[in-house]
Structure formats: C-alpha cells, structure tokens
Amino acid sequence: MSIRAELKYKIMKDYGAPALMVLQDFKRRKPRPIPEAFGPPLESNKRLKEILSRHYFLSRYTPGVKKVAWVTSGAPVELLRAFDFYTIYPENHSALVGAKKQGADYCGIAEGSGFSQDLCSYARIDLGHMLSGKTPAGKLPKPDLLFCSNNICQTVLYWYKAIAHELNIPLIHFDAPFVTTEQTEADINYMAQQLQDMIPILERVSGRIFYLNIFEDILKRSMETSKTWGAILDAMKAQPAPMTIFDAFGHLAPIVSLRGLPVAQDYYHFLMDEIDTRVTQGIGAISDERYRLIWDNIAIWYKVRFLATFFAERKMNFVTATYTNAWAETTGYLDVKNPWTSMAKTYGQIILNNNLKHRLDLMKKMIKTYSVDGMVMHSTRSCKPYSVGQFDLRKTITADLDLPAVILDADIADERVWSEQQIHTRLEAFCETLEGSKHG
Ligand code: SF4
Question: 0.70 exceeded by the pTM?
Fold first, then answer.
C-alpha cells in the first residue's frame, strides 16, 4: 500500500467527494418538470445519486490503497467484503451506459474487435469500455481480481475469462449447479466447499487475513439490508403503490453493488422510512392508479422514462417485478450460524438458476399478492436465460389467471434493438385489452 495513494484517497473521501456532491447539487438546480401523471418524486432519489456518484468517484483513487474486484451481480460478494476489496459491478456500469443511451456506441467498439452482436449487451458494453477506456463514470479502476458466478448465466464466465486473459489477472468462478427440481444436499455441500476453498486465494490477492467474525458481521449486515429491500418491495402492495417499479429499478443499485456495506444498509433504512410515510399518507407514485402491473425480466434501461410516462398517463402502475425481487427472494436463507451452507442455499437458488416451474409459481403468487391486473414481459435479446420460456409462462399465466399480458421484444442496454412502431402497436393493444378486461 502506498502512503501517497492512501493520503490522496483520504483527501478525496473527506473533501473531494463532498465537493462533488455540492457541484452536482448546483447543476441540478433546475430539475426537469414532472409530468402530471406522476405523484411527488421520492426524496431518496437525491441520496441514491449521491451514493452512486461517490462510489464511482472514489473508485478512481483506489489503486495502491485497496484491491479492486469486478464482480457479477449474483456472486456471493460478502466473502470479498471480508478482505476489503473495492467492488465494481460491470453489469451496473453497463446499465448506466444503457440508461445514457450510449450502449450502441460501446457495443460497437466490442463488435469491431470481433465480439458477436449476439453476446449480451452488458458484456459488450463492458468489453467496449475495457478496449476504449470510455465510461460515463469518469474512470474505472482496473481490477486486481475477477469474481463471477454462473448462477445468472453462462455468459459471465466467458466474458470474465476474456477480461482475465486480456488483463492477465486471476478469476474466481463460483459454480452453482442449476436447480432442475430441488437443490440437493450434494449441490449445497459442493458450493459451500468452493466458498471455503476461495479463502487462501483471496488472502493472497488482497494481502489480508480472513477473520470469521468480520465475515459474520458482513453477512449479518447483508441479511438485514436484503430484508429491508424486501420490506420496501412488500410495501408496494399498498394501493396506491408508493413507488413504481421503474423507481425500484434505480433503487436496486445499492443492493446489487454495495450489498454488505454500511452505506447500503443505511440507505435502505432511509428509503424504507420514506416509503412507510407515503403509504401512511396515501401518496402514490402515479397520480391516479387504476391498474396494477407486473414486469418480467430486466429493465430496458434506455426507455425507462418513456415507459414510466406511457403507463402513468394511462393510470397504470407497475407494482412488482421478478427482477427487483431477485435480491430479496432467497436471502432469507442466510444464516450467520451456518455461513457456508446458507450462502450456498441463497446464491444457488436465485431466480435465473432455478427452473421454470419455480418462476411460474413465483409469478402467480406475486400477481395475487400485489393485486396485479396485467403483465408486461420484456423479451430481451441479451439475456437468454431470462427470456427463454417467457412465451410458455405467458400462455399458462394468461390461461390460469385470466390475466392480459404482452411481450415486448427489446434489449436491456443496446438501443439499436428497440423498434418504436412495433412496441407502440403492442403496448396500445395491451392497454386496450387491459381496460376492457377490467371494465368489461
Ligand atoms: S443480462 Fe443475462 S446474459 Fe447478460 S450478464 Fe446478466 S444474466 Fe447474463
């Protein structure tokens, strides 16, 4: 660790980051007008932006101070936190690029180097970033370690292998057997053993010793944070719902990328308080909520605002989503007394590593408990594991629950896949059916 780098990091943490917040506040003096279809915006939005800006800002000053790990969204990050890695989530960064409508540009760079357009756009954006150094976050630190898990898809393994090869750095892969019917004892033990086997490698890369009590504290914090996130999502059962799922897509960022850190825990307490107040006072995310919807699959990051406005103007609010639920669904398995097996259960059973029957049952339950009137499924070109099976799910759910549903063909972060006319036609037809079903 260099004393100079450490001093610089400390100065940036104590003075640089707060100064940046003031500057951002100044720039935001003239907020965009809120369309009438929406209720008052969440106060927490400002705090969320500050946390994320600060995280990316400080990441620039980590080399020489902390070891940096690039991590996939479903990886058991709590273990890395015990070694004080500064974690960067390329998926989160790619979503940021997508939201800024710059996805096609970054994807183009990766495609120009030979990566197929059929590859997930999160991967292409990240590879585009790695090849060009471009980022809307200013600058990202180079990783000392890559940490991935195939519990979300197989793509991440090959994507991270490409980075490991290019940067000549270690890659740790947490292999999670797919749950075809139920998780077996053998699967749990296999995953639990992998986690323990990682410790000497993490000690070597980080230069730190593993202390079980530190790890347990992190696990406890992670559990509590995920529980609060789950409670926030639960609060959307209220009518009107205190926020939209489009808000939740943004507020998801800390639970994905800062899970296990005090900043995420504090943030969700703050958001929970605001959500509770809104529920008590009957404040809805949209002005006049008449229809309640469920969203399936990852957000279409470059069209979040468009979709939020389109539905709010039709008095339709998304109150739940399989995507936002993913970071609350299995964390109830976490148990500080059995850290290894409980992590295996938690991370081995997340939605994308679980079978379609599980997803069907889960969605049916969500539709009932959130009083949902209609379903929008995003069939995304990028994410095959999330999109395969959606037509069967729609058919069964529509038949069993008599629920109007539509499938939108688009992409998470590559805006070239969006077809304005086709989406409009499908959305208008869906809204007409939904209105007819509720009043007819
Ligand atoms: S979007 Fe899907 S394919 Fe892409 S990294 Fe995530 S889980 Fe994998």
Answer: yes
